[in-house]
Amino acid sequence: MIAHPPKARDIRPTPPHSSVTGLLTLAAARTFSLPSGGSWSGYGGDLDCCLIAPAQGTLSVGTYAGTDVLAPGQAMALSQCGEFTIQSVGDSVCMLVQLSGELPGRLLADRLRECAALFPKGGGAVREAVLALSVLEEECPPVSGTAASAYAYTMLTNLISGPVSGPEEPGQEPPSPLVEAAVSIIQEEFPFLEGLDELAERLEVSKAHLIRTFTRKTGISPGRYIVHLRVEYAKLLLRSEDASIAYVAEAVGFANANYFAKVFRKETGMSPTEYMESVPHTGGTPPRQMGPLLW
């Protein structure tokens, strides 16, 4: 579990001065916790830019172009990306800044590759902006949109002036292509994976090497990550009025309903039936979506 996570915040500045509108607007800055396997989904439309950085833990960010894994100290910019998903590999805290206007895309153009740009040292720039806005909100709410736009500009210039790659901070390891590939496969296919032997074979590594590398990079074993994803998706399915425990167990990848119920209770503290009785229900079986929309 995360020890003393940063306070959850949702900062929404006032509209900026008319001279800034259309050029650079900071619409929202958020800090929120995600349990292992949990996720949030959002949408980046025309002239929208999102900056994402983990304050704690490891996040994966998925777009139409693929999946990237972010460790603390790193950041990612998404520009006009369409639907995207932020998912926690282990228990994590995410910082997210939503921008709009022409300027972010122009400043980031040289770094963007298929709507995304990874900044190996960019986490500090995002953190500084979010913390500065948090102080402003505490001292003089609501946050001025013009002041927020100024912080957004500083954040963007700090990102693009930082290194594209280079030596990591002391004690921080470089990103692992193996872990990124494993996370991508797990997120897409967790209901159908036979186990870690199959995953390791597809990645062309030994099972022991996969477990060792994945756990070192993310703080959680790949087996535990698969279980967390299955349980999170099961929670979503159990909200449906026509869901049965047997159907949900099969849909999320468990061998039978009894084993599913045992794992579900261990992860959540309640049986699937108790969970179904404790949450509001939706009409019909939901699509495979792991969380509510951010915006």
Write up what this structure looks like.
The protein has 295 residues and is an alpha+beta fold. The protein is 40% helix and 21% strand. It has helices at residues 102-108, 123-139, 145-161, 177-189, 196-203, 207-218, 222-238, 245-252, 257-268, 272-278; strands at residues 9-11, 25-34, 39-44, 48-56, 59-63, 66-70, 75-79, 82-88, 92-100, 116-119. It has a six-stranded antiparallel sheet, covered by helices on one side. The radius of gyration is 20 Å and the shape is globular. The model is unreliable at 1-5, 166-171 and 285-295 (pLDDT under 50).
- The topology string of helices and strands comes to EEEEEEEEEHEHHHHHHHHH
- Going across the major beta sheet, what is the strand order? 1-2-9-4-7-10
Estimated helix fraction: 40-55%
Care to count the β-strands? 10
In the predicted model, the low-confidence regions spanning at least 5 consecutive residues are 1-5, 166-171, 285-295
Outline type: globular
- Structural class designation: alpha+beta
> Over the alpha carbons, how many angstroms does the gyration radius reach?
20 Å
Write the layout of secondary structure elements.
Layout: E1 9-11, E2 25-34, E3 39-44, E4 48-56, E5 59-63, E6 66-70, E7 75-79, E8 82-88, E9 92-100, H1 102-108, E10 116-119, H2 123-139, H3 145-161, H4 177-189, H5 196-203, H6 207-218, H7 222-238, H8 245-252, H9 257-268, H10 272-278
Antiparallel strand pairs: 1-2, 2-9, 3-8, 4-7, 4-9, 5-6, 5-8, 7-10
Helix pairs in contact: 2-3, 4-7, 7-8, 8-9
